[in-house]
Design goal:
21% strand, Archaeosine Trna-guanine Transglycosylase, Chain: A, domain 4, 5-stranded mixed barrel, alpha+beta, 39% helix
């Protein structure tokens, strides 16, 4: 049975089937339709999800030649933490970051996305200005707006430590990917069930009462992949950047799941009147 990874073949089949019925679709239109059928916002999101599944596992990367050090352009974020598997649109205003994006697009389209410690700082270029743990991400899409602003879509791939920063025309870093711990342990599986239960209470939603299409749009994976579940729930929480950064820095999956349960047990922050 085909799944989302066969999306391009599905789009081609759909286009050919409709052509036989005198309905003409472009390749782009058929891809957008397949994305919607699979419950995703658009083809860019679907393409990013496919790309994420093709990234080798951390243990496999650790065995690759020179995998302990990778040199990549850096995209600092003022007020957001990107997680692995997370897809986000980012508006790029700083010239140095724009050049980092352009550099990545001339290569393998990978960047290091990392939160900065002080949002007001315009040129964070040291390990004192940036957190030392970020995410290697894929640049899925780039669009230049009518006003000249640059908007990029990124898909988080893997946690990484920043070893060294180079401040030039664009900020770049030597990074060492982080290997996760206890990702498939019995404890992680049990905690995954508890995380899903806690999120239903936290978000006031009953997954069992939702139609299938809505479940797909929520994007919450099953407990079969505890690490993926943790990194999908984390961005959904109404908590501080510092708390989310702590979750990102926690590469022990069981510890990360426990932290999620503690954060959700505390409930959503109360709105200030």
């Amino acid at each position: 049975m085909r799944d989302f990874r066969d999306a391009k073949a599905m789009a081609k089949t759909l286009r050919e089937a409709l052509q036989n019925r005198s309905v003409a679709l472009t390749n782009s239109e058929s891809q957008e339709l397949v994305a919607q059928i699979l419950g995703l916002r658009d083809w860019n999101v679907l393409a990013a999800r496919i790309q994420a599944t093709r990234l080798p596992a951390p243990s496999a990367q650790a065995n690759m030649p020179n995998a302990d050090r990778t040199h990549l352009p850096v995209v600092p974020l003022r007020d957001m933490v990107l997680f692995p598997h997370m897809i986000s649109r980012i508006f790029v205003a700083r010239e140095q970051t724009r050049k980092a994006v352009e550099q990545a697009l001339t290569g393998d389209r990978r960047v290091v996305v990392v939160a900065q410690r002080r949002g007001a700082e315009d040129r964070p270029s040291t390990l004192e200005a940036l957190y030392s743990t970020g995410v290697i991400a894929d640049l899925v899409d780039r669009q230049t707006q009518v006003d000249g602003a640059l908007k990029v879509t990124v898909c988080g791939l893997q946690r990484t430590n920043i070893v060294h920063l180079t401040d030039g025309e664009h900020l770049a870093a030597d990074v060492a990917p982080l290997e996760e711990l206890e990702g498939q342990s019995t404890d992680a599986t049990a905690l995954s069930s508890a995380v899903l239960d806690a999120y239903q209470t936290y978000a006031n939603v009953d997954f069992s009462a939702l139609p299938h299409a809505s479940k797909v749009r929520l994007g919450l994976p099953s407990i079969g992949d505890p690490s993926l579940l943790a990194d999908t729930v984390a961005p959904l929480l109404s908590t501080s950047l510092e708390e989310k950064q702590k979750l990102l820095e926690t590469h022990d999956v069981t510890a990360r799941l426990r932290s999620l349960i503690e954060l959700m047990s505390a409930g959503r922050p109360k709105a200030v009147a």
